[in-house]
Amino acid sequence: MLQVTRLNQYYGSSHTLRGIDLTLAKGECLALLGRNGVGKTTLLKCLMGVLPAAGGKVAFNGRDITRLTPHERAALGIAYVPQGREIFARLTVEENLMMGMAVKPRAKAILRDDVFQLFPVLKEMRQRRGGDLSGGQQQQLAIARALLSDPQLIILDEPTEGIQPSIIKDIGRVIRMLRERGDIAILLCEQYFDFARELADRFLVLSRGEVVASGAREDMDGDRVRRHLAV
Ligand SMILES: Nc1ncnc2c1ncn2[C@@H]1O[C@H](COP(=O)(O)OP(=O)(O)OP(=O)(O)O)[C@@H](O)[C@H]1O
């Protein structure tokens, strides 16, 4: 579904992504791991088109999307939940969710009910303003909004960051359910190793803009991986 080939990116003279290769198949969850500042968010932004790639190729369902805008990528079925969530603080929960539906207006009611089932708290709070929600509730809202675009690929940037344990469990449950559904690919960028290990089919570790380790979930515990994650 997603194929990234020799992706390169720079901030000024700093070479942030160095020839990244990755693939992700339908129904698969890939964990993207690595210490702070190794280039994880930059990679996700390049995949969504928020940042242009300086070199290399991003293909989605066999189509070269390297030069497409974020909006065009969203219309093709890629959803992105950025770090820090970026929900609309002044809009209600319901209005925030409608923004997700704007990508595929025909998806509508069924999807919305699905999402309320996944995140019952959002149904309870649908008239509240996004800015009045707790961090964990905002994270749930951001994921729900992304799901309402009916994506084939969902990209999650550190969904557990700064979130209390009970909500982390809820978010994990939703990601597991999406994975078990088998019709969506999940790219999960995480610092919280145990959370990623529980959910991912495969992993990939970045260090200084390069892929330094990758493999199946069973290999995640090895020293080879831990060495690149320890602070
Ligand atoms: N807009 C920017 N301009 C210049 N340098 C940047 C910019 N954004 C990030 N960087 C630098 O690029 C490198 C990679 O940053 P990036 O945010 O992709 O890392 P990360 O692995 O996602 O880290 P974190 O987990 O802290 O978000 C870091 O050294 C960072 O300081």
From TrEMBL:
NCBIfam families: urea_trans_UrtE. This is Amino acid/amide ABC transporter ATP-binding protein 2, HAAT family. Belongs to the ABC transporter superfamily. PANTHER family: HIGH-AFFINITY BRANCHED-CHAIN AMINO ACID TRANSPORT ATP-BINDING PROTEIN, HIGH-AFFINITY BRANCHED-CHAIN AMINO ACID TRANSPORT ATP-BINDING PROTEIN LIVF. It holds the Pfam family ABC_tran. Transmembrane segments: none annotated. SMART domains: AAA. InterPro entries: AAA+_ATPase, ABC_transporter-like_ATP-bd, ABC_transptr_urea_ATP-bd_UrtE, BCAA_Transport_ATP-bd_LivF, P-loop_NTPase. The keyword Membrane applies. GO terms for biological process: L-amino acid transport. Keywords: Amino-acid transport, ATP-binding, Cell membrane, Membrane, Nucleotide-binding, Transport. GO terms for molecular function: ATP binding; ATP hydrolysis activity; branched-chain amino acid transmembrane transporter activity. Signal peptide: none annotated. The keyword DNA-binding does not apply.
